[in-house]
Design goal:
- The protein has 193 residues and is of the alpha+beta class.
- It is built from five helices and nine strands, in the order αβαββββαβββαβα.
- It has a single domain, classed as Hypothetical Protein Pfu-838710-001 (Beta Barrel).
- The protein has an eight-stranded antiparallel β-barrel.
- The longest helix has 18 residues.
- It is globular, with a radius of gyration of 19 Å.
């Protein structure tokens, strides 16, 4: 009887934890560019009256997958982990991206499970400043051993017309901030190492 009671309590605890898992599926257009001067871009964002959301220390562990990209993100000070799977074109400039994010309570067991079942590809350690401007999320990233980058992400509907409008918005913002086309990157940080 005592064993059944213990098993029931364990099951209830697992159910409570599982109910705290959140899944988000989004379509984005995005771009990434290598930059030299974060301060200059920060000043331009302030001049545009972009909203500063915050600055975060993030560690992304990338794993090999048959297609797309999979990473586990830890944010310093957060009690949550984010498992992020995404598929996107590897082209410089604004590109469409299909993203699925599973947010779960921080768990050492879950991290160990991923490391046992999937082959690790890379670990990226970065400080990310996040801004919002006119429907676009802007990241100023300082990535350990890789340098400094700017990223734009804009949520969009999946139809070609909406994707095209989103890409045009990112190109206009790129122009406004003085981000050079020559500095555009086609790959993810996990592919750089």
């Amino acid at each position: 009887m005592e064993d059944q009671k213990g098993n029931l309590m364990q099951s209830e605890n697992l159910c409570k934890r599982a109910s705290k898992v959140n899944g988000i599926e989004r379509q984005l257009v995005e771009l990434k560019a290598r930059i030299r001067d974060l301060n200059s871009l920060r000043e331009k964002l302030i001049a545009l009256k972009a909203e500063h959301v915050g600055t975060f220390h993030q560690i992304d562990a990338y794993f090999e997958t048959p297609r797309g990209r999979l990473k586990l993100r830890e944010v310093e000070g957060s009690d949550r982990l984010m498992l992020v799977y995404y598929e996107r074109e590897d082209v410089p400039g604004p590109k469409r991206s299909d993203v699925f994010i599973l947010e779960i309570p921080r768990s050492t067991a879950f991290k160990r499970l991923l490391k046992k079942t999937l082959k690790a590809k890379a670990v990226i350690d970065k400080v990310r400043e996040i801004y919002r401007y006119d429907g676009t999320q802007i990241h100023l990233d300082t990535v350990k051993n890789l340098g400094t980058f700017i990223e734009f992400e804009r949520e969009t509907a999946p139809d070609p017309h909406s994707v095209k409008r989103g890409q045009e918005s990112l190109e206009k913002l790129m122009e406004n901030l003085g981000v050079s086309r020559e500095n555009l990157e086609e790959m993810s940080y996990g592919d750089f190492v």
